[in-house]
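My main concern about presentation is that the manuscript never shows what a single data entry looks like. An entry of this sort, consisting of the sequence and the corresponding backbone structure tokens, reads as follows:
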Amino acid sequence: MSPNSDSILSQELSRRTALKALFGAASAAVLFGLPARAHAAEASKETTDKLNAAQAQLDEVQAQLDSIANEYAALANKNAQTLNDIENVQGKIDDTQAQIDEKKAELKKKRNDLSDRVAASYKSGGTNILSLLLASGSFEELVANAHYVEKINKSDRDAIEDIQTIQEELDAQKTELESQKADLEKLKDQQTAQMQDMQAKQQEVQTVLNGLSDDVKELMAQRDSEILAAAQAEEAARKAAAAAAAANKNNSYSGGSSSGGGSHAPGTPQQNAGSGKQQAVVNACYSTPSPGQNWCAAWVTNVFRNAGVGYFGGNACDMFNAWCYSSDRSALQVGMIVADSSHSGTGAPGLIYGHVGIYVGGGIVMSNEGAITSKSLDSFISFYGTGSGVRWGWLGGIALS
């Protein structure tokens, strides 16, 4: 978002009010079935100028909305990278913890072995080592045996010290990784907050755009009404002239043929034709209808409510940020939501809000795209993963399996 975006938005709102005052109320005439000569009729210059000005204003605000969408998409991509970094760091933490556990077990075994050996020596009165030393046949052999005993003890001590050193290094490494993860979590929260702010700005600009669009529609209706009235006046004048010419012809045949300009009626568009909980969600996917275009998250909410799992609101971006934590295919389970927070395939709505569907098994993701569709996971990722990337997880954090 550019620094002066708030002032621009205020200007747009003021212009919106000014346009309303300037344009006033206009009738919504629909232009169809004009007579043959109607193409020569024109609207008034005042109406045409107002329409051109409103259209230019509409284009300007639309460009602003597109700019917000593009900036949001760029931020969503950065947020996706942050999520990847968090996932990678967590993997390193898990690996380091496994090494720490291994060294702890090794250290415990070394200490137990040394303790057992000391205890055995104590119980035997130290006769094992003493026997070894007394069995020496010469002073040189005695010195060699004593050196051997000392080397065994030093080897034990060195082994324990080495393991302790490695464990301390691993503990420090884990602490550093956890610090990195904490920083990344803060960055993710900051990016999420920024995206929410941009969504709010997008909604404000969309409201302005909707108002300007209404103004353009009103002026277009007014223009069409004026063109229709001018065309009807031309046609009436033509018929009057023809009638006067016929009346001047004495004893001429007065019956003329008329050509009916049948009115056009617009056509009517065709109508758009594991576990128990997991199965309930799958069944609800097939029985829950589409709530309409661009309402993918609403459909997901309806599915989980119809399945008896619970109610979870928010848009696709909200669901992605709150619940989609993994991109590991081996972790994907039936009933999980599959989502992105921003993609370019469906224009501004996709850039701002992303898309969400439900994995129903067999490599298939169902989602609302205006109609309920079933796509392979690969196809879903290929189309919706072009921006922030696609991730999955349990909606509401409720594991259905």
User: Anything to note?
Assistant: Residues 1-40, 251-273 have pLDDT under 50 and may be disordered. The CA atoms of residues 280 and 307 lie 5 Å apart. Residues 139-247 form the longest helix (109 residues).
